[in-house]
Amino acid sequence: MAERFYLTTAISYPNGRPHIGHAYEFIATDALARFKRLDGYDVFFLTGTDEHGIKMLQSAREQGISPAELARRNSAEFEAMAALLGGTNDDFIRTSEDRHVAASQAIWTKMAAAGDVYKDAYSGWYSVRDEAYYGEDETELREDGKRYGPQGSPVEWVAEESYFFKLSEFQDRLLALYEDNPDFIGPAERRNEVMSFVRSGLRDLSISRTTFDWGIPVPGDEKHVMYVWVDALTNYLTATGFPEEGERSAYWPADLHVIGKDIVRFHTVYWPAFLMSAGLPVPRRVYAHGFLFNRGEKMSKSVGNVIDPAALVDVYGLDRLRYFLLREVPFGQDGNYSHEAIVNRTNSELANDLGNLAQRSLSMVGKHCGAKVPTPGAFIEADTAILTAANDLLPKVRTMIDRQELHGVLAAIIAVVSEANRYFAGQEPWALRKSDPARMETVLFVTAEFLRRVAILLQPFVPESAGKLLDILGVGPDARTFNELTPDVRLAPGADLPAPQPIFPRFVDAED
Ligand code: ME8
């Protein structure tokens, strides 16, 4: 039976419409999910919306609607974004769903039964934008007389009765988790930050509120609603059917949570501590990507300057956007995007390197090989070298995928495509047409077979264009997994090919 692989995005706050940061995280996770599926895994890919908390309540008040209505409207936008981005998520969870209320109350009950929950009075600093409690030492008083948290968002003083989680008692178990599982947190700088945060000592965590009711009621004490992060993190369990045993239970523990760098503490400190308390296995890996900036300008719903992902798809097309986002910015680091960067990157690599190679070779196949897969003669060293370079890609990129080095995967593939362009130019098949037509067929066969291998590998990243390239290579829908990349699988000489069509056209500015 296929090995399972469960991966998730963070669930977004639907207090506004989706922005490019959400699209970025979703596209990256979708590419990982597609890669794993093609590589033979039984994948479960989850995304969704995080609908409770004060941030949602405040946004709803500002708009004069109920938080449930705000969540419903914007959650639909997030679901539409997932579809627009070619998302292959297997489920879309909303934390206002009944199944999630049941799961959150079940994990709470388990933590309470373990003796890790107690009632006390809370007073301290809270950031609504981050939905986070901060110690006074993590905040700063600025010249405007207001206090701000470590991520630059304003904090307010909160004092009320609250349930607490005994986080302070999990310090040793958490440090042991990080030490015994060096891959639990990636990239390395995030792991180091978390370890020094936990080493410096943990305070118990306030996990309920009484001053509003937009949340999941605490079992047995309905005056309290759960702190939004207790319920939010539990979404990953909810989708596996928790607390019931069912078909999806076997996906837990999750193999990978893909999140942004601003929410690492919640996923690598609070979440494993909640799970340990509840006696449940912890996820295998949490990977934090960086932030995307519009030419250095931070975008978020709370700050404004939001760029609509749908508009970007409209202008550039989905595959250009997917390719650019995953190729341009090393995953894990912050990065910029701009119109020029998108156009330059996709024109030079997709249109010039890959598109031209496909266009030039396959139009020759169409004209001079009777629109059939060419019949090769004996290979010379250059032929074997370029096919070997393509064969060597899978083991190489597989390792990078397991470290979420998406940019590295695309860099490795495009480097081999450049090599193939040099091969094609060096062999001059257009000159061979008269001087040595048999050799021309060999060069065209090698190039077509090379393109088949590269197109199969590119499917997770540019699904539509890679699919089209496979169509014109005559590769059927059931011959597109990584099983078809073993050295013995090849295009069948003499097989009929459909008419070639351009796969990666250049992007031309409307005003040009
Ligand atoms: O944090 N660039 O929701 P959210 C890259 N509900 N990534 C970005 C980004 C940007 N400019 N802006 C946001 C939440 N993100 C919680 C998560 S999970 C149990 C609960 C990322 O809507 C951000 O880092 O503020 C996070 O991973 C995701 O988008 C959702 O952010």
UniProtKB/TrEMBL annotation:
The UniProt keyword set, sorted, is: Aminoacyl-tRNA synthetase, ATP-binding, Cytoplasm, Ligase, Nucleotide-binding, Protein biosynthesis
What PROSITE patterns does this protein map onto? AA_TRNA_LIGASE_I
Q: Where is this motif: 'KMSKS' region?
A: 298-302
Q: Name one GO cellular component term.
A: cytoplasm
In short, the EC number is 6.1.1.10
Q: Which gene carries the instructions for this protein? A: metG
Source organism of this protein record: Aurantimonas manganoxydans (strain ATCC BAA-1229 / DSM 21871 / SI85-9A1)
Organism domain of life: Bacteria
State where the protein is found.
Cytoplasm
Main location class: cytoplasm
Q: Which reaction does it catalyse?
A: tRNA(Met) + L-methionine + ATP = L-methionyl-tRNA(Met) + AMP + diphosphate
InterPro entries named in the record: aa-tRNA-synth_I_CS, Anticodon_Met, Met-tRNA_synth, Met-tRNA_synth_2, Methionyl/Leucyl_tRNA_Synth, MetRS_core, Rossmann-like_a/b/a_fold, tRNAsynth_Ia_anticodon-bd
Quaternary context: Monomer.
List this protein's GO terms for biological process: methionyl-tRNA aminoacylation
Question: What is the role of the protein in this entry?
Answer: Is required not only for elongation of protein synthesis but also for the initiation of all mRNA translation through initiator tRNA(fMet) aminoacylation.
**What is the enzyme's main class?**
ligase
The UniProt record lists the Methionyl-tRNA synthetase anticodon-binding domain at: 373-511
Q: What lineage is on file?
A: Bacteria, Pseudomonadati, Pseudomonadota, Alphaproteobacteria, Hyphomicrobiales
The protein's name is: Methionine--tRNA ligase
Q: Show where the record puts the motif 'HIGH' region.
A: 12-22
